[in-house]
Amino acid sequence: MRNELEPYPGRLDKTVQYTVATVIAAIVVLTFRLPSAVLGVYYPLLLMEDTPASSFRVAKKCGLFLFFAAIWVLCGAVFFLGSPMMHFLWVVCTLFLACWLIEAGEDHAAATSFGIYVATGISVLDAPISPDVRFENILYILLSLVMGIAIFLAVQYVMAGDEKQNGLERGIGTRLLILRNCLELISEGRTPGRLLRRQLRKYFMIGTGRIRKTLLGLDYTRRVRDEQSSAVGLIGNMIEFTYSLVETPGQPVPNQQARLRGVVNAIDQVRADYAARRAPEPIPLPAPQPGELRRSPVYRLEYSIAILTQVYSSYLIADRVPEEHPKPKGLIRPGSVTNPATLRFAMRASLAAIFCYLFYWAVDWPGLSVALTTCIVTGLSSAGASRQKQMLRFFGGAIGGVFAFVAQIFILPRVQSVGGFSLTLAGAIFCSAWVFLASPRIAYAGRQMALAYEAVHLTDPYYNVGLTQVRDRVFGVFLGLVAMWLIFDRLWSRPAAPTMTQLFDETLDCIAELPERGSVEAVPALTRLRETIDGNFDKIRDLADAVLLEFRRDRAHDLISRYRVRSWMPLIRSIFMLRLAIMRRCWVDEAGVDDPRVAEAIATSTSVLQEIRGMATVDISKRPDPPLAARVVPIPKTTANEPAVVRIAASLATVSAYLREDVLLDLRGT
């Protein structure tokens, strides 16, 4: 947790931006006395991206869903509110639609905005108020949301820092610098200092989730996005290998100091080339030294930096490969209307929300209506991932409730001006935004901290002297979690571990299907295949985290499968990168693409991927014979004067051989 909360470049700036935007939005809401305007103050947190342009793109999609939600709620008030039975059927259809959009929408955050709005709208329609006030409140909610979005975009635009270096470049540069400094000290026979080790541990613990999310929001071409995504994955692996080398040094490998100095020099060259926007010279993949285990962190660092240079070397052919910007995605994924899995998901989540709706009206406790929002926003495809989000929502809401209690009892009674109220709000929101800007493991808790605090102090445009809203919110969240655990997790639910291993095998098949040559005309089809593979990598990583929150009878075997998948993924991603690098050179008929060693290396990688398919779930204790036989994988011989594509092909075969041996060692338990 300490590593998650430590500062990193750009974190303070983003936290200040959101805090300032929230305080300004709150002052506007209280000045004009807008009722039910808490969502307008909270909503900018959903839009926070690395740059104003990225935030504006997200805001456009969210705006479309919000206007659709407002029209939907108004239609419900006009046509269905007069009849209790028709109103209940409208509520059922509304909750089903909201849950279906979350699973079917192309942008999860934008689709969630529809669910948040209609959940609040249902509470407004059920309130014992006049039709005129009800109509005004529905429109006031929309007005406050539009105002909150506009204020945040304006604040971010005004306070935007150095636009020449975005969060992705800062993240890559910072990690490379830490790697370089650590490895330089080790190569000199010294131990990294406490501060440097602490920085290394921080980036090892938080991973690359935040920087990957930043990459998705940047307006890059597909080629550049592929290269940057590959680079982020490789640098994340190098952080892990260096952390292992620092914390558990073990027995030094042959020529360790000299080899690490070579890695340091290569990192310096990559940093210089990256800053100058030029392609580095590809480094050939080294062979392991005699007597050295291939699992050595030193060797892994050597091949990682070599693959990194080969990935970035595709800039050399940038002028000859057509640049293609990703086409704007629609609001709904194709095929979602008839997809049985999407319909089952919507049925599970909506049944949990309907149960909450019936329960809090049966006990005449409408303050528990926040349970509807809990069911809508915490529903995810796998039980483990959904449970992770549910726990973050509960603990985040509880912490935000504690902040609200403290402010309500000890601080606000002594405040006599808007300045004091704004400072109190700024302190709570600063803490919430700081947590939100951690890694995706705990970021969602930051949102819930902010929403819990704002729901107490900004739901009504006047000072609230009671504590019932805090109580109702905590109990409402708890009711939603109980409903999700009793209904959502038990109806057509599939655990995260089998989903992860099945997706892992499907990803292996997709990589094996990449053609040897291809053509420029086939770029659109290959782009779709690449996007599928990239998306699968992200889903597998999320599912691996969700496995930890599932406690099935086969938990021990699930954890073994998780370890195998996480251990093999870096090399599988490296094979994917190298296959793409070879394919790009084949598109432009670069010298050496017709060399038989290139086709041989591609065939080798395909056969290895097919061999390890299904190995993540193998139970060695139930199989007397080894599932994977030992064999020698052919590796083409190359020299420094060979064409670049031939050297990359040799690297592809070498990594494939290393992956097969790694799988074999894991299956043998060594």
Automatic annotation (TrEMBL):
<dbReference type="Pfam" id="PF04632">
    <property type="entry name" value="FUSC"/>
</dbReference>
<feature type="transmembrane region" description="Helical">
    <location>
        <begin position="87"/>
        <end position="102"/>
    </location>
</feature>
<dbReference type="GO" id="GO:0005886">
    <property type="term" value="C:plasma membrane"/>
</dbReference>
<feature type="transmembrane region" description="Helical">
    <location>
        <begin position="109"/>
        <end position="125"/>
    </location>
</feature>
<keyword id="KW-0472">Membrane</keyword>
<feature type="transmembrane region" description="Helical">
    <location>
        <begin position="20"/>
        <end position="43"/>
    </location>
</feature>
<feature type="transmembrane region" description="Helical">
    <location>
        <begin position="345"/>
        <end position="362"/>
    </location>
</feature>
<dbReference type="InterPro" id="IPR006726">
    <property type="entry name" value="PHBA_efflux_AaeB/fusaric-R"/>
</dbReference>
<keyword id="KW-0812">Transmembrane</keyword>
<keyword id="KW-1133">Transmembrane helix</keyword>
<feature type="transmembrane region" description="Helical">
    <location>
        <begin position="64"/>
        <end position="81"/>
    </location>
</feature>
<dbReference type="GO" id="GO:0022857">
    <property type="term" value="F:transmembrane transporter activity"/>
</dbReference>
<feature type="transmembrane region" description="Helical">
    <location>
        <begin position="474"/>
        <end position="492"/>
    </location>
</feature>
<feature type="transmembrane region" description="Helical">
    <location>
        <begin position="392"/>
        <end position="412"/>
    </location>
</feature>
<feature type="transmembrane region" description="Helical">
    <location>
        <begin position="137"/>
        <end position="160"/>
    </location>
</feature>
<protein>
    <submittedName>
        <fullName>FUSC family protein</fullName>
    </submittedName>
</protein>
<feature type="transmembrane region" description="Helical">
    <location>
        <begin position="418"/>
        <end position="439"/>
    </location>
</feature>
